[in-house]
Amino acid sequence: MPQYAITPLDPETAAAHLFHVRQVAPLVHCITNDVVQEITANVLLALGASPAMVIAPEEASHFAAIASAVSINVGTPRQDSLVSMHLAAKSARAHNIPWVLDPVAAGVLPWRDKQINGLLALKPTAIRANASEIRALAGVGAGGKGVDSTDSSESAVDAAVMLSQRTGAVVCVTGAVDYVTDGSKVLSVSGGSKKTTMVVGTGCSLSSMVAAYLAQTKHPLEAVASACALAKLAAQQAAGVASGPGSFKVAYIDALHLIQAKDFY
Predict the structure, then answer these.
(1) Alpha carbon distances (Å) from 116 to 121, 161, 191
(2) Dihedrals φ, ψ of 107, to 5°?
(3) Any bridge partners for residue 6, and if so which?
(4) Across all residues in the chain, what is the average pLDDT?
(5) Contacting residues for 61 by C-beta, under 8 A, at least 6 apart
(6) For residue 164, what are the domain limits?
(7) Which of 38, 95, 169, 244 yields a CA-CA distance of 20 to 30 A from 216?
(8) Residue 162: inside a domain
(9) Helix or strand or coil: residue 210?
(10) What is the pLDDT of residue 140?
(11) Residue 158 lies in a domain
């Protein structure tokens, strides 16, 4: 049996962190995969953050140093982008800027796993991934179906705790219920919609939302869970008005922009 309690994120905390991130209006340095750059930028803008897709190795270190937070996603890795990822992560650490790792398809391909482990060594502030990816990183699973999870988020809670204790990062495992841990506490976030899985980039863009929420916060565990709470609530609202994946994407971005702190209660 686990030695920790799972506590639902309370609405007051979610509301406070949404207010904070909109006050800060963070500049988020995104080095993400080729498929999701547009939705990532639009999600951050809707939230109230400023996205910047600065991916050249010649600029990555310098830009990370002036950003509010850095988001690194290994979905479509190339040698040049991997160089940029390492430079940005090192710069973020050196300048006490939070950075988030999204280890897409961890456990599926040996070369990719080697690159992900190299980034893990650079001590991300937070790791956001699906259940199969988290289990693979923790050494208790073999990855999912490509970039998709074949495990439930609940089955990855123990792995998330172990991974957090090993890396020092806040670990967020997303799924039907999201679980966020700092290695001792675990917060859960419910809600959302299955339609989220029908639109590419919702998970990847959430990792960048997590980065935005981590900017200038003294409470990283609650900040990461609050980013998940906003995404869940936006997805739930979008599903109520969308007729299919295309309209869901538009409604989701609209909801991220329109949701106010009072809507969590």
Answers:
(1) 9, 18, 30
(2) 90, -5
(3) 186
(4) 95
(5) 87, 88, 90, 91
(6) 6-257
(7) 38
(8) yes
(9) helix
(10) 87
(11) yes
* Alpha carbon 166 to its chain's center: 19
pLDDT (0 to 100) of residue 143: 66
Distances (CA, A) of 29 to 7, 67, 113: 31, 6, 23
Q: List the structure tokens of 60.
A: 């990555």
Residue 264 covered by a domain:
no
> What is the rounded CA–CA span in Å between residue 63 and residue 200?
27
pLDDT tens by residue, 44-103: 999 999 999 999 999 999 999 999 999 999 999 999 999 999 999 999 999 999 999 999
The answer to whether 83 and 57 have CB atoms below 8 angstroms apart is: yes
- Could you give the number of structural domains in the chain? 1
What's the Cα-to-Cα distance from 203 to each of 21, 63, 247, rounded to whole Å?
A: 19, 24, 17
Q: What stretch of H or E contains 148?
A: none
Residue 21, both tokens? 């991130």
CATH code where residue 212 lies? 3.40.1190.20
What proportion of the chain, given as a percentage, has pLDDT over 90?
A: 92
- Which stretches in the chain have pLDDT values below 70? 1-3, 141-149
Residue 89 lies in a domain: yes
Tell me if 147 sits within 8 A of 75, measured CB to CB.
Answer: yes
Q: What pLDDT does residue 4 have?
A: 79
